[in-house]
Design goal:
Blueprint: E1 2-9, H1 16-27, E2 30-33, H2 34-48, H3 55-63, E3 67-69, E4 74-76, E5 79-80, H4 82-86, H5 88-98, H6 101-112, E6 120-124, H7 127-131, E7 135-142, H8 145-155, H9 162-181, E8 194-197, H10 203-215
Parallel strand pairs: 1-6, 1-7, 2-6, 7-8
Antiparallel strand pairs: 3-4, 4-5
The protein binds adenosine-5'-diphosphate and deoxycytidine diphosphate.
Deoxycytidine diphosphate (YYY) binds next to helix 2, helix 5 and helix 9.
Length: 217
């Protein structure tokens, strides 16, 4: 078991990034947003004119991503791309490239390299199953699709009803279905994961629950 790793997996907009970053900061540990690497691969491919289904070319790009995670920004080839990788079109691209085994292997070691002596909280889809199977604590963070769509809409400053909201909900459901049904590293709770349904739980309570579980180990 790796005492110094907490793996947080779950579907889109369940709060993984928010909760993982807050838990990392509470413990003084590093934080890995693994989805950012898949998003960066999708964006880099678009910039380089590589199609999101060209597995061999994508794996080469993923292996050589010129990325730097600085305190304030994510840099791709020296350019800040924080906003560019957050859109739902790049999210769909990330989900598409993430279904390709060669892309996943190209990013595997890069993710493990985020582990420092202090410890690491990592969020994604396969943190517990593939990247850190020895994690001390595995959390599967989830919430109903409706609640997750509301959180995403709020994040984007959109109304919680109407056509734009319906589109967000449809996108979330489509991407989750793709991530759950792929053959390589599908999104699913591990048998030894703690399930945390945050549909009726705020951020503070979610963070506290994860820290409580960790302290009980
Ligand atoms: N437990 C929670 N209760 C209410 N809002 C939350 C909760 N967890 C996260 N959020 C909000 O939901 C939005 C999506 O969270 P995020 O961490 O980006 O999710 P993910 O990384 O799973 O896509 C953010 O605006 C965040 O502040
Ligand atoms: N460890 C990971 C992380 C992300 N992915 C893929 C699948 C996801 O749909 C995309 C984007 O992930 P990301 O965590 O950034 O997306 P959300 O913020 O949850 O909407 O990348 C993956 O396959 N494995």
């Amino acid at each position: 078991m790796n005492q110094k790793v907490i793996a947080i997996d779950g579907p889109s907009a369940s709060g993984k990034g928010t909760v993982a970053a807050r838990v990392a900061s509470a413990l003084g540990w590093a934080y890995l947003d693994s989805g950012a690497l898949y998003r960066l691969t999708a964006l880099y491919a678009r910039q380089q004119g590589v199609a999101w289904d060209d597995e061999a070319a994508l794996a080469q790009l993923a292996a050589a991503l010129p990325v730097a995670f600085t305190d304030g920004a994510v840099l791709l080839d020296g350019q800040a791309v924080d906003e560019a990788i957050r859109g739902e079109d790049i999210g769909m691209g990330a989900s598409a490239v993430a279904a390709l085994p060669q892309v996943r292997s190209a990013l595997l070691q890069r993710q493990r390299d985020f582990l420092t002596a202090q410890g690491l909280v990592a969020d994604g889809r396969d943190m517990a199953s593939v990247v850190f199977p020895q994690a001390a604590l595995k959390v599967f963070l989830t919430a109903s699709a409706e609640v997750r769509a509301q959180r995403r809409a709020r994040q984007l400053g959109l109304a919680l009803d109407g056509a734009a909201f319906a589109q967000i909900l449809a996108d979330i459901e489509k991407r989750d279905a793709a991530d759950r049904s792929r053959t390589v590293a599908p999104l699913a709770p591990q048998a030894d994961a703690h399930i945390l349904d945050t549909s009726a739980l705020d951020i503070d309570a979610s963070v506290k629950k994860v820290l409580d579980w960790y302290r009980q180990i």
